[in-house]
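hi! just following up on the protien thing from before. the input was this:
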Amino acid sequence: QVHLVESGGGSVQAGGSLRLSCAASGPDYSKCRMGWFRQGPEKEREGLASLYLNGGRPIYAASVKGRFTVSQNNAGNILYLQMSSLTPDDTATYYCAADRECIPTLSAEDYVSWGQGTQVTVSS
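and the predicted 3d structure came back as:
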């Protein structure tokens, strides 16, 4: 499995931006696809963005498309989530996830490795 560590969370005012990072360590075959998820208070875990690390276009949830951008560094061991135009509804714990299968997916059950999460709080 892949070891994942998220960072970059914090508090921001509505309309602001944040960039989350997810450092991934472990064998490359264990992280063919990676994704970002979030879980707000009393809400189910929501898939936000996913990409195939070896190429192709990422996929996004409708709730964040156009506001959030997922990317990776050249080495393929850091995943980013650039978030803009944040609203209080974006307040949640954000998680990155990885899986050895390659097709991008926003379904949490399709990922076996998870980070510990990083908190994002957006105030109005």
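The mean pLDDT is 95.
The longest strand covers residues 18-25.
cheers
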